[in-house]
Amino acid sequence: MTLYLSRLKLSRSPSARALGALLNPEDHGRRLDAHHRLLWAVFTDGPDRQRDFLWRAEGEGVFLTLSARPPQESELFERPEVKPFAPALGQGDRLTFALRANATRTEKKGTVSATGKEQKRHIDLVMDRLNGVTGQSNLPKGERSARPEQRMELAQAAATDWLSGLGARSGFRLIGAEVADYSTVALPGNRNPKKKPQFGILDLSGRLEVADPALFLDCVMQGFGRAKSYGCGLMLIRRA
């Protein structure tokens, strides 16, 4: 299957710039929601279309997408820059990567929904450690939001463990990774101030070794982690 790596940039036309506050709002959660809808606009070609693309915001109105179809042209964007994505990888190849991810683990709740499906909960791995659920947090309860360096240490440990396990299932071996940022976001419609945000985002970079080229590329297309509709999961790779 042919894949496409595309670069899209918001148009600077007067009509598009007039919508700037709607297309690129200051609030992080609303911005993710707006970008989610914006990217769908260039890939949706019918009411029953299933998502077959990943995307990543690069800032300054620029987006990268990996898709099974080229993006459609839109008055809201400049003409897309599109190129085929077909890296020739072999076992043992070493790559650098950048990944924005929502890293979670899934637990069964032990209950069944009205539709008969077993209910599950998705637990953010970094918040799990920050809250001491796994017993691995070293932060006193009152200091979990007051010690950024310790938050990043826990984020680093959680991300490394997650990527190592992910690699074993996805055709690569992690050589090393670094967390540049960890943030939590509440999307519109889930902004109850009494509830903690449940949407965690890790910005990662690092090096890996390809173990199974076919499996790895298939996983790159599928994306890593959850929240793919909101700009997570796209792994950008290049030869080390």
From TrEMBL:
InterPro entries membership: CRISPR-assoc_prot_Cse3
Pfam family of the protein (one): CRISPR_assoc
Superkingdom: Bacteria
Cross-referenced CDD domains: Cas6_I-E
Annotated protein name in UniProt: Type I-E CRISPR-associated protein Cas6/Cse3/CasE
Organism: Paragemmobacter aquarius
Source organism phylogeny: Bacteria, Pseudomonadati, Pseudomonadota, Alphaproteobacteria, Rhodobacterales
Gene coding for it: cas6e
